[in-house]
Write a structure and sequence with these properties.
By secondary structure, the chain is mainly alpha-helical. The chain has 14 helices and 6 strands. The chain is globular, with a radius of gyration of 21 Å.
Length: about 375
């Protein structure tokens, strides 16, 4: 296989890995923020919950930065098109992400119940909204984004903010929220005690059931949705741009890859293989096993979308032949080669120090420990 084509495939896989890392690690933190007011009924209980993820949430943001950076460097045409079309959504995401560190740092600075209550709601919003936006964005990609290119590859977005919040996108958004709540609840289970652990255990079960139902409904919906298929790509001897291809739409196209390669059904099956045993593990209080099974479920959910859409990455609903694919939207071979080298060095380091941090700061977080630690959140 030609080196350039191989590098494109490698970075398609690596983008999926980074999105899974973002969903699992950042989604876990967001889930804890979303359930904060439910699992913690008193101020002390809420402080315990915040300190469960307190040592890790800043480090976990690395996955968010890596995801955005990878799209910018490896898939610049997708980055430019998505960030210009989803500008309002990106600002909404940015504002909620700004509120999040403020909530952690300022919540316990004053003893006022009103002050702390306001920051609790801020942490809820900054946990719920980003995961809703994350899932809704994926839902919109599956339906196609209304954009087209001028002759000089300047993208023109023709949609609206309201159109992004369509029923299917909201269903995907709620699936994302349910998965993040599940991951957050299992994390609270693993380090919480008493009533906090019990509330988190029940919430993990309910959110897991919700994720199962939403994933199943979403799969049935996608099977009846108009997908995309590449009729003819650019001539191999010419520049690979979205202006030199023919793409058509028809119902059931998102299942073509699965029908052509039945082994790919193992990808969506892994989502069920994670959530179904995860529910049992959560019910029995096996929090660590439930967390890892939740991570497997995230791999299945995100992997299913990527597998169904391949080679499309950002299809166009207004001009299907201008859709962005793995083949026509990547950086140069030189850029991808250097990025692959750096990734081979730094990705293992990130995984190592993340694992080390969780290992060193393992153990239960108790109310007594929080009240005696002046540096606790």
């Amino acid at each position: 296989m030609e080196t350039y084509l191989l590098l494109k495939l490698v970075w398609w896989v690596l983008l999926g890995v980074l999105l899974v890392g973002l969903a699992v690690m950042v989604g876990m933190d967001m889930g804890v923020g979303t359930i904060l007011r439910h699992v913690g009924r008193t101020d002390t209980e809420r402080r315990v919950v915040l300190n469960i993820v307190g040592p890790h949430w800043e480090g976990n943001q690395v996955w968010f930065v890596l995801g955005g950076g990878a799209i910018f460097a490896a898939w610049p045409l997708i980055y430019a098109t998505a960030f210009s079309g989803f500008y309002v959504v990106m600002l909404l995401l940015l504002w909620t992400m700004i509120v999040r560190p403020l909530g952690f740092e300022y919540r316990s600075k004053l003893a006022s119940a009103q002050w702390r209550g306001a920051w609790d709601w801020a942490l809820f919003v900054s946990g719920f909204v980003p995961m809703l936006v994350f899932g809704a964005a994926v839902g919109n990609l599956l339906q196609g984004v209304p954009f087209h290119f001028d002759w000089n590859l300047t993208s023109r977005y023709t949609g609206s903010f309201a159109a992004l919040l369509n029923p299917f996108a909201l269903l995907c958004g709620l699936l994302s929220v349910a998965m993040s709540v599940y991951m957050g609840a299992t994390m609270v289970m693993s380090r919480g005690e008493g009533v906090i652990r019990e509330r988190a255990r029940r919430l993990a079960q309910w959110s897991g059931i919700g994720a199962l139902l939403l994933f199943t409904i979403g799969g049935l919906w996608v099977s009846r949705m108009q997908g995309y298929h590449l009729v003819r790509g650019p001539d191999p001897a010419t520049a690979q741009t979205p202006l030199r291809q023919i793409v058509e739409r028809s119902t059931g196209d998102w299942l073509v890859n699965f029908r052509g390669h039945p082994i790919l059904w193992l990808v969506p099956a892994s989502a069920y293989a994670g959530l179904l045993p995860g529910l049992i593990a959560a019910r029995r209080g096996a929090s660590h096993l439930a967390w890892w099974l939740g991570a497997l479920a995230w791999i299945g959910v995100i992997g299913t979308v990527g597998t169904a859409m391949f080679p499309f990455m950002m299809p166009s609903s207004s001009e299907p032949s201008h859709s962005l694919t793995v083949w026509n939207s990547s950086s140069s071979e030189y850029t991808l080669a250097w990025m692959t080298g750096f990734t081979a060095v730094f990705m293992p380091l990130i995984l190592w120090y993340t694992s080390w941090a969780f290992w060193v700061m393992r153990g239960k977080v108790s109310a007594q420990r929080i009240e005696s630690d002046e540096h606790a959140y």
